[in-house]
């Protein structure tokens, strides 16, 4: 009997998950728990039972590595094939590359901020399961940045504007919009970070970024971007599920958490909606072949899906964000307003802009029947006519930035698309400017945080955006040229009008060589 082998019982998913998460924790003995976890109480959130945190996927680290390894093998096979077969010549039009440049300059670095945020949040949560979830999401986001870098690096061999990403991220005026979003989240408490990224961005808004943009990449022949997008999308689906579980966990722990969470939902929904105005511009103006308009994407992914979400959360006492109605009204306007801003400041951006064709204007008229022909088409046609006469419009002045979202004041008043929205607050004898009531309210709640905002335009005026050795008092000093050199732009190659650009000429020549003798 002693020699009989006992069949080893195979653990179920639930038992295995418990061993690989809660089983990894321990109670500190030589330090009080409050000293080990000093940041999980000061935000006012009350947690009574960390064991209520459950990952709906019950994913353990060993299973995680197996899934991600399989996805990486497939992804890198496609990237290699794309590079070896000159896949960059299969895209519809070199104008499409400007959308990828903006994604690379402004979205990919944000992934690195989220890596840092989840690593920090995981360190400061007491529950073992929440720490494991944060660790996996931090690794996910790091992997997303790396796969984006490896996919997009192929374009950097042939086209302008893909270089110096890390340098530009810390300096270029329009990149301060995603950068300030990431730094605001990164410097918040661990629970606010969770609501900012896991819930407000990942659950409520992420589909507005990834689904239409990756569909647009497929429609425009960019299989490299499609593949890293789809590889990340399965992670995003998991992040979304964790996001809804995270907010429910906080709301179920204590009724006192509800007003705190509601304020964070108000803030981060609005900050995310403002940030995604860049995506709206990409969808409506920068994709030569368009899948859907920004307005249609907003109606599907924000109004329908988000509306159902907030109806579900009503039983916890959570209402739709304060800026919901204004953001829904803005779906008619923001993509046009942001495109016109970048068109006129195209000399100061590291990607190209252009005048839409007649077909593209007609498409916009169809998609925005209530607003485009009335408010935006006349202005675009006016600028196009000036360009045809050799008078391409470039703004050489600097715009006023919103202190909170850092977007130039280009958005209009709710209910009046003919009037620029402008708000002011005086705090400690200094005046601060905002693009909306909601950005002003965010500032009012955390003024000491936002008075420290590094606003690029203000820094330029203060003389802090010139390379060492530049003499602003020299007779031939050109301040705009000096600032663009500080940004490390290759002037005349990275920026300006698309028609006649080096990217346009090279793409046409290389594709001609690839398709005929």
Task: Explain what the structure shows.
The model has no long low-confidence stretch (mean pLDDT 92). The protein contains 22 helices and four strands. With 517 residues, the chain is mainly alpha-helical.
Helix share, percent: 55-70%
N- to C-terminal distance: 82 Å
State the shape.
globular
H and E order:
HHHHHHHHHHHHHHHHHEEEEHHHHH
How many beta-strand runs?
4
Largest sheet: 2 strands, antiparallel
User: Which stretches are poorly predicted, pLDDT < 50 over at least 5 residues?
Assistant: none
The strands making up the biggest β-sheet line up spatially as 1-2
β-sheet strand percentage:
under 5%
Count the helices. How many?
A: 22
Task: Supply Rg.
Answer: 25 Å
Q: Mean pLDDT, as a whole number? A: 92
By helix and strand content, what is the structural category? mainly alpha
Q: What attributes characterize this protein structure?
A:
517 residues, mainly alpha, two-stranded antiparallel ribbon, 22 helices, 4 strands
Summarize this entry quickly.
With 517 residues, this protein is mainly α.
List strands and helices in order, with pairings:
Elements: H1 13-20, H2 33-36, H3 61-84, H4 96-106, H5 108-124, H6 128-156, H7 165-169, H8 176-186, H9 190-219, H10 223-253, H11 257-275, H12 277-286, H13 294-313, H14 324-330, H15 334-344, H16 358-367, H17 372-388, E1 412-413, E2 416-420, E3 423-427, E4 430-434, H18 437-445, H19 447-450, H20 456-461, H21 479-486, H22 502-515
Antiparallel strand pairs: 1-2, 3-4
Helix pairs in contact: 3-6, 3-10, 5-6, 5-8, 5-9, 6-10, 9-10, 9-11, 9-13, 12-15
